[in-house]
Amino acid sequence: MNEVQQVGLPELLALVRQRTPARLLVGRSGCSYRTATQLELRSDHAAALDAVHADIDLERDFGRELIERWRPLEATSCAESKTQYLMRPDLGRRLSDPARTAIAQSCPTGCDLQIALGDGLSAAAVIKQAPLLLPLLGEGARQRGWRVGRLIFIRHCRVGVLNDIGAILKAEVVVLLIGERPGLATADSLSAYLAYRPQSGDHDARRNLVSNIHARGVCPEEASCRILALAEKMRQLRASGIAVKEELPATGSGRGAGGQD
Amino acid sequence: MGVPCADDVMLNYQSTSYHDAAAVRRIFGLQPAPEFLVWLQERGIFAEKQLAPGDTRPQGRLLEDLRAALEWSTGNRL
User: Fold this and answer.
1) For position B57, what pLDDT does the model report?
2) B5: which chain A residues are within 8 Å (Cβ-Cβ)?
3) What is the interface pTM, i.e. ipTM, of the complex?
4) Calpha distance A129→A124 (Å, rounded)
């Protein structure tokens, strides 16, 4: 037998770990976690909490170049603090009165594409992914000849804020890039929510979503292609949400199911 | 629900782990449902109505299945 040449359990486990962030096969002490597992879980949970509570400082986190290129308008939801934001999801879905006024005064209306950034539940995700995604979206929109609105950044933001933005700016497609609820292993995952002419009372069934935008999930290049394709389709169909089906290429990690190779 | 270390890495939820289920059974003196217990004992995960100690048999089987899956997905002989 070739038993001798075969790699053992530790090597196989190392290979498994390379392929998934899932905490598979960690072993046990009695029926509990081993100390190392427990410590790792506490540490990763603390990192997730930090990501939720962190705040974004546009100039510090995005750098001068991006700020000068995009001139983001800073706005806040009706949630006045991070604590209130976490306790009152409804407030995070509405723009504050000063934000409404500022957006109405300084953003162009009736654009083909309006992009907004929201901290959501992970500042780290926005800080990490938005600078990668924005240039790709900007370039894709330019190639299509779309008129793009002024970038808006919304603090204490939830997805429903799309409705207020749509109501004020009457943009055709609104994209909100927002930090996702952090997991224990990934705090830098971003979602892109899209809606066609969103307005007051619109709900999730009228929205489309590209989620898991991060290095180990959907990479920025793929995400921007999907976002632009969705926006294009929404403009064709004059609709969003369940009326729009995203056509994804068949996924397969390397070897196909046929296994001919 | 059995999620490895309670960490749902796709939905980013914290759930309950295999360890949690085993600990709750031990603390409250509970047993798996009878038909589930039969299955667990058949697989060698439980022995004599308890979590099997040292568990060499399931681990050996796991090792072989894991090797086959990794060989398939990496295309390398392991």
Assistant:
1) 67
2) 23, 26, 33, 37, 41
3) 0.85
4) 8
